[in-house]
Amino acid sequence: MNARVIPAPATPSLAAGEERAIAFGGGGEWFTCWTLAYAATAKAHGVDLSNVDVTVGTSAGSIMGSYLTSGRVDSAYTQFKELAAHPEALEKMVVTDTGAESQVRATKVLSTATSTGTESIKEIARAAMASKNASAETYAASLEKLLFGNTWPSQAHHVTAIDCYTGERVIIAHDSGIPIATACAASSSVPGVNGPVWIDDHYCMDGGISTSSTHSDLVAGAKRVIVFSLMSQAPKSGAFGFAMRIDPDSIHAEVRYLESQGSKVMLICANPADGTNFMDPAQMAHALELGAARATEDAAALAAFWND
Predict the structure, then answer these.
(1) Contact assessment for residue 27 and residue 59, using Cβ atoms and an 8 Å cutoff
(2) Nearest to residue 227, comparing CAs of 205, 183, 259?
(3) Which residue in 44, 155, 161, 223 could disulfide with 204, CB within 3.0 to 4.6 Å?
(4) Do the Cβ atoms of 203 and 41 come closer than 8 Å?
């Protein structure tokens, strides 16, 4: 079975009737670290998120969802703490800056877009495809190392990306025949940074270049849904938080939609400080600290929501 194009809202969703579901949004290395520390710390407090039935991951969330559903949260947490102590190691592993003017141009097109409509997304995609980035194969190979291999982590996990030509949402799952590192590379192909990546016959960019940064509609109808979003309010500028920058109510509208479909929802937002560089490995240690602190703060409410 190939990767699938699924319009929003998904009808039916991937999690209708399931007990537990999680949607992980994007946010670069920073949000990968934040959510990873959150999940590992929550587990230490007696809330194991890995008993989830369906996960949807976008960009950084595609990686986090892979760790969670493969049972490798603790191993990944240890790995990223080591990388945070030596950020130069990740810079060597994941090369993104080629020094090309086309990368600057693509980043500008993304950060100055004023609409999440299809034509706007296609314009961003054209800039992404015209950007001289490091090879997609090299990027996928680096993710394979970070993901402890290339085997799909679980039938529970689904990855989102955006077709550059049509602007449509592409969903990649365990039965697609796509290696997990390739799927995550496509999902995290930020215009002007890396990718795009071929997924079957779709040339794909970052799943967050969409009306949603979490694609939580894909898990509507699950009894309990956690949505991990980088932000709960609009960022002042930048390439990250695309949907929130243009429509500050978007994540809250997603929650309302989930609730209208019968799901109980817990929205968890990191809300990093303005000016945070989400792609800077030097910021990983702080992200890990913040994610762990937030999980400790949320522990009682999270247990009441998630545990039987």
Answers:
(1) yes
(2) 259
(3) 161
(4) no
How far apart are the C-alpha atoms of 249 and 140, rounded to whole Å?
33
Distance CA 74, CA 248 (A): 34
In this structure, how many other beta carbons lie within 10 angstroms of the beta carbon of residue 178? Answer: 23
Kindly state the tokens that stand for 133: 């980035």
Q: Which residues of the chain have pLDDT under 70?
A: 237, 239
Q: Say whether the peptide bond before residue 196 is cis (omega within 30 degrees of 0).
A: yes
104 and 239 Cβ atoms separated by less than 8 Å: no
Question: What does DSSP say about strands 20-24 and 224-229: parallel, antiparallel, or unpaired?
Answer: parallel
Query: Do strands 157-163 and 202-206 pair parallel, antiparallel, or not at all (unpaired)?
Result: antiparallel
- Sequence-separated (6 or more) residues with CB below 8 Å from residue 261: 13, 220, 221
Return phi, psi of residue 15, to 5°.
-125, 15
- Asked if 134 and 98 touch (Cβ cutoff 8 Å), the reply is yes
For residue 139, give Cα distances in angstroms to 71, 94, 197, 298, 307. Answer: 23, 6, 10, 34, 37
Tokens of 173: 């799952």
Q: What type of residue sits at position 248?
A: P
Q: Looking at residue 180, what is its pLDDT?
A: 98
Which is nearest to 106 in space by CA: 205, 244, 29? 205
**pLDDT for the residue numbered 94:** 87
Q: In the chain, what is the greatest distance between 2 CA atoms, to the nearest angstrom?
A: 53
This prediction's pTM: 0.97
3-state secondary structure of 299: helix
Give pLDDT, residue 274: 87
Residue 248: cis peptide before it, omega within 30 degrees of 0: no
